[in-house]
Amino acid sequence: MRSSPPRRAERGFGLPKAPSTITSVFAARVGENKDSTAVKRGGATLSYGELDEMSDALARALTGLGVAPEDRVGIFMERGVEVIVALVGTLKSGCAYAPLDIRSPAARLRTIIAECDTRLVLVDTEARAAALRESFGDGPEIQVIGDLLTRELPNFAGHPPVRPQQLAYVIHTSGSTGRPKGVAISHQDVVAFAADDCWAGIDRRVLLQSPLEFDASVYQILVPLLRGGRVVVAPPGRLDPATIVRTIAEERITSTFITPSMFNVMTEESPDAFAHGCQVWMGGEVASPSAVARTLRASGPHSVVNVYGPTEVTVFATRHLVTEVGDGPVPIGSELAGVRTYVLDERLRPVGPDVVGELYLAGRGVARGYWARPELTAGRFVADPFAHDGTRMYRTGDLVRRRADGLLEYFGRQDNQVKLRGFRIELGEIEHQLTRRDEVARAAVVTLPDKHGDQNLVGYVVPAAPATADSVGDDWRARLLDGLRTALPGHMVPAALVVVDRLPLTNNGKLDVRALPAPVYEGAGRAPRTETERLLCQVFADVLGVARVGIDDSFFELGGHSLTATRAAAAIASVLGVRPGLQDLFAAPTAAALAARLGSPQAAGSPGRIPLVATPPEGRIELSHAQRRLWLLYQLMADADPGYHIPLVFRLHGPVDTEALRAALGDVTARHETLRTVFPADGETTHQLILDPSDARAPLTVTDCRPAELDGLLARAVRAPFDLESELPLRLTLFRTGEEHVLLVVLHHIAADGWSFTPLFRDLSRAYAARSAGTAPEFAPLPVQYRDYAAWQRRVLGDRSDPHSVLAQQLGHWKTRLAGIPLCTPLPGDRPRPEIAGGEGAVLDFEIPAGLRRALDALARSSGSTLFIVLQAALAGLLTRLGGGEDIVVGTPTAGRSDEALDDLVGFFVNTVVLRTDTSGDPAFGELLRRVREAWIPAYAHQDVPFDLLVETVNPPRSLAHHPVFQIAFGLLNTAGSALELDGTAHHWRLAGTGAARFDLAFDLVGRTDRDGAPGALDVSLEYATDLFDHATVRRLADRYLRLLREVAAAPDRRLSALPLDDDPPPAD
To answer: What is the residue range of the signal peptide feature (predicted)?
Structure first.
């Protein structure tokens, strides 16, 4: 049992020691700081005087509408300046504010408004007002704040008096019975919270990015306003880590609150995010010691404060300024001023040091209770037996222990409540929404780690008899999730729902979480009825890597994309003798539908292709079409252009056995002929010369250097030219700085592509492990080599002079499809396009977070498309919005590995196809998805045409100022993980910049996978021509792309013109 002694404020601007009100303290700050900035959002500011006047006007208007002291006024607004005016004005009127989540379903809003007896709701737009009026009918009065601020009230008699004990706000948390609970907090508790001297020095510029219904917003708004500081309002909408990091730097933020989930992602991307004077307060979930340690190293020992505080005790109750991270959990610290903490056993007796008990909180900040819920209040707010003054303490339900040094450590929950991404959730409320349906007998909701190690909600349901887990289908599970989405906010809807016949229990009758089956993503449709359906189901399962596929399961909903669809078509050809086109797979994505379609004479697919088989090397070995194009460019440029270098950087942990690595490199070049191939000139032509493994030693250079020299040495090594006539197309350099080992792998594109990374680094890892152990690696033989592919490709395509050949037919398609394309896509650059492109470039790296990627995956599945189509449609929409016209032409790489024999081979198989998108008519994004999909299917069906022949056939006007046909490239590398594993540790590569740019803009997206193999974030490398663009312009372009992706994931039915790109709201539909 501890209490914090009173502490003396370090700054003497008159925060009261006696109980006081928010409004009176704010009035004192206005008197001292009338012309100082109180609120800032972007370029807009409000001084203390202006905020005072606007909130006065709102208070007068509310009083004129007949509100009474302690009436609850709902605030239903997007984050912005008006939210703060609404909050302060509501308090001045004597009312309490009750925030409402603008993303909550109407059913939950009705419940909260009824629970709180809210009589009036403030909104920021007329559209939001109209939507609420339609939903609530005769419910509370809805007022647009802008209308109230201009309302004239000549007979205003003055604001009603406000008492310290008066209600300030009611914030709702999840309830175990299915009803949310409104926590009632008084003025005096907020003032006492703001008076704590822990804020001294960090209250100058506080970032508001939490939603108003999350009580961290109380700190972010009222602490700076009551202490003479500034509230900096983050951009509206859902915020990605990069936006928060940038805002912190640009606005010189001194403090803010961030949930650990967001903190972890931010510090992975920007460990020094808080290195410039910002102290981050973090809580709401268990802190990650590794993320905190990473931040302390980069941002300093006073950059992170781990906090703890339930809504029932006015925001934060304990804090710990982290200076170092030990072996155990990050402590939640010691009490804020006036708070008392007790660690008690089940009989309310204090436990000793290092003994786990339940945490009780008393003293400053304890809420009145739950609004209009006396029975709940009595169960949680109990008499404090240690105070002897009749005050109460709050039973948190959290298990903690007090260390010998007095700091508290958190050990989890005692009840069925969790805190997830900053929101407190009663799992019982979700379970109640499931079991209230007659078709559900029992339900349990638990939290399980996802691919990042972050917690996710997973629901388990037992169907009511006579139904069983086997008898209900996926549509039943989908209906349950849809029902939850209409009743609960998004953060309370489980990420997965698993149907079981019983819930496993422990010996003492509690749910046995460890015995619950893990969510498995697999098909669950009907069993095959025919041999054709059986073979198609088997192909789908093999290609997608799932356990089972039913005849009604969609190939694309199970995770299929362009590359896997191409492989599926090839596999189907091998087992059925007929090859479906991609248009067949999209039109009939289930085994049942595809079997029927392939059996139809009108859509029977094409005959199987010539088989790809290994052949002995005989005579002159010709180049593939792709290699021929690069060879011609090499001859023209003498490899002075490093744009066709592929530089991959690995930052290695621990020592490296260089001799084992050198030997492993030899093993890999021996295995893959393309890595030991040179291209000697035969006059104006060349051929493949495959060297004997004993004569082919790819270089591994070891360079010792100082850390300050590393970037320069990397840049020179990346740009060093290849002599393709005599030098192997692969080289490695190991840089040793004394602090770390950095491995640079540089491949020439003539020998490899992005899909080669997986087999290359998998084989190199296996060979290194074997050589480190003193043995030689044992590889399964490759079914074919690259020379087999080059010969096979020519046989498959045929001669362009033969009108019946694949090549001639596909060239005919492209000549028609690309007729009349724009000469050049206009983009808002920083400089006019030069007459001759300089070829210099730079790279901007950013990330599409895993959560957003999952939302885009869901949109792709629901729209019958792929992740690539969604990403490309968003880019087309963005380019149109930025002035690129309504005929958007983008080049995209295709894997070119249409036969499974090529899966494990290193080589240059990739080809470029052209996607032409019509964005005219301001379509809704869902319509744009349909257009892109309809353009994508024939493009991929005609992907075999070498790009140089396509350009020759389309014959656009040539210019030295830009790339022919398209100037913007967009590629998504959708392969398995391609990490390099050394001594049991996986190391992930990043693409280094070459200093060159082949296009105006080139987006290269790489899908990452987590440890369990599930999809993670998308890494984006945006290469841009420095002839045209500055870094800041490209950064803004990337931000707009991310914003557009978030918006379309949330609302794909909105028109392009209505999707916001910046902080300003979009025009109305």
So the answer is: none
Q: In this structure, what CATH number is given to the domain that contains residue 79?
A: 3.40.50.12780
How would residue 326 be classed by pLDDT, with cut points 50, 70 and 90? confident
Q: What is the pLDDT of residue 1041?
A: 95
Containing 189, the helix (H) or strand (E) segment is helix 187-195
Q: What one-character-per-residue DSSP string does 956-1007 give?
A: PPP-TTS-SS-SEEEEEE--S---EEETTEEE--EEPP-SB-SSSEEEEEEE
Q: Summarize pLDDT for 796-824 with one digit per residue, the tens.
A: 888 888 888 889 989 998 999 999 899 89
DSSP string, 263-320: HHHHHHH-TTTTTTSPEEEE-SS---HHHHHHHHHHH-TTSEEEEE--GGGSS-SEEE
| SS3 state of residue 363 | strand
Is residue 70 within 8 A of residue 167, CB to CB? The reply is yes
Indicate the number of domains in the chain. 5
Q: How many helices (H) and strands (E) does the chain have?
A: 29, 46
Q: What phi and psi, each to the nearest 5 degrees, are found at residue 456?
A: -130, 155
Burial of 692 (0-12, 13-18, 19+ CB in 10 A): exposed
Q: Are residues 68 and 155 in the same domain?
A: yes
C-alpha 484/C-alpha 443 separation (Å) is 13
Amino acid at 308: Y
Instruction: Kindly state whether residues 771 and 819 are assigned to the same domain.
Output: no
pLDDT in tens, 361-401: 999 999 999 999 998 999 999 999 999 888 999 999 888 88
pLDDT, tens digit (0-9, with 9 covering 90-100), for 693-741:
988 888 999 999 998 999 899 999 998 999 999 999 999 999 998 878 9
The answer to the question of residue 92 being in a domain is: yes
d(CA 785, CA 905): 7
Q: CB–CB of 416/426 below 8 Å?
A: yes
Q: 1032, 830 in Cβ contact below 8 A?
A: no
Instruction: For helices 22-33 and 81-92, give the axis angle rounded to 10 degrees.
Output: 120
Strand partners, 1021: 845, 1004
C-alpha to C-alpha distances, 889 to 812, 865, 879, 1004, nearest whole angstrom = 18, 19, 10, 16
- Based on the fold, state whether residues 540 and 509 are members of the same structural domain: no
Domain presence at residue 377: no
For residue 455, give its domain range: 428-515
Write the single-letter amino acid at 593. A
How many C-beta atoms surround the C-beta of residue 327 within 10 A?
Answer: 5
With 0.85 as the threshold, say if the pTM is over it. no
Q: Please check whether residue 340 lies inside any domain of the structure.
A: no
Is the domain of 848 the same as that of 948?
A: yes
Q: Are residues 774 and 794 in the same domain?
A: no
Whether 876 and 888 have beta carbons less than 8 Å apart is answered as yes
Please, what is the average pLDDT of the chain? Answer: 85
Rounded to whole angstroms, how far apart are CA atoms 636 and 449? Answer: 54
What's the whole-number mean pLDDT along residues 126-137?
85
Backbone angles phi, psi at 1063, to 5 degrees: -70, -25
Mean pLDDT in residue range 246-268:
86
Helix pair angle (22-33, 187-195), 10° resolution: 50
C-alpha 171/C-alpha 121 separation (Å) is 14
- List pLDDT tens digits, range 499-537: 998 888 655 455 777 788 876 534 445 678 787 888 898
Residues 6+ apart with CB under 8 A from 515: 504
The span from the CA of 460 to the CA of 501, in Å, is: 10
Residue 184 sits in the same domain as residue 133: yes
Residue 105 falls in which region: left (phi positive, over 0), alpha (psi -120 to 50) or beta:
beta
Same domain? 773 vs 813:
no
The C-alpha R_g of the chain, in whole angstroms, comes to: 32
Residue type, 365: G
The amino acid at 745: V
Which residue in 749, 759, 730 sits closest to 669, CA to CA? 730
